[in-house]
Design a protein that fits this description.
The chain is mainly alpha-helical. It contains six helices and no strands. The chain has helices spanning 26-59, 61-64, 73-108, 125-132, 134-162, 169-179. The model is unreliable at 1-19 (pLDDT under 50).
Length: 180
């Protein structure tokens, strides 16, 4: 038998030899595996968003700086807000990666823990996460979505904040258009 199948009837929790099912059911193991895949498929885009945020902050560093051309107070404010949104987007994306990795590890080690028998079966992997790991499910989805939205809003504010200092009328209109 593969090494992970030893918990099915060979060793009881007391450490001795016993016959019987001491691990989670096959249905729960299947749901946990599918839930792990779902989490991995959420962590990968979060890593892409984190990379895009860093690339935006490095590539567009001139757009994020307040200069003497920024005569309007709201333009300076939007640039600072854009910078804060980009930093928070990176932090939320990294947190999403961390949450999905830790939750995935919890799911892969399901049979090795005493709590495995307390998990309830559901129809879908998302239902399994929602029912059995509600905090982890919520925090991984929330942090990914918020990181993505903060990145988009930060880029929009970056362009809107640079519109007054763009120079000409056409440039100003273009920056407003790109930002909205």
């Amino acid at each position: 038998l593969p090494p992970y199948k030893h918990r099915r009837g060979f060793f009881a929790r007391g450490g001795g030899f016993a016959i019987g099912n001491t691990g989670p059911s096959e249905e729960i193991e299947a749901l946990a595996g599918e839930s792990f895949d779902w989490l991995a498929n959420l962590g990968a885009p979060a890593a892409l968003v984190a990379g895009a945020v860093i690339a935006t902050m490095i590539d567009q560093a001139d757009f994020l700086k307040t200069t003497k051309k920024d005569t309007k107070l709201w333009a300076r404010f939007t640039k600072r807000a854009a910078h804060i949104l980009l930093i928070s987007a990176f932090a939320l994306s990294v947190f999403s990666i961390f949450a999905t990795t830790v939750t995935g590890t919890m799911l892969k080690s399901l049979g090795d823990r005493d709590i495995a028998e307390e998990y309830e079966e559901t129809i879908s992997p998302m239902g399994f996460l929602h029912k059995n790991l509600p905090f982890e499910f919520l925090i991984s989805r929330f942090s990914f979505l918020q990181g993505l939205l903060h990145w988009i809003a930060g880029v929009a504010l970056m362009y809107i904040g640079n519109a007054p200092a763009a120079g000409g009328k056409a440039s100003t209109k273009m920056f407003y258009f790109i930002g909205t």
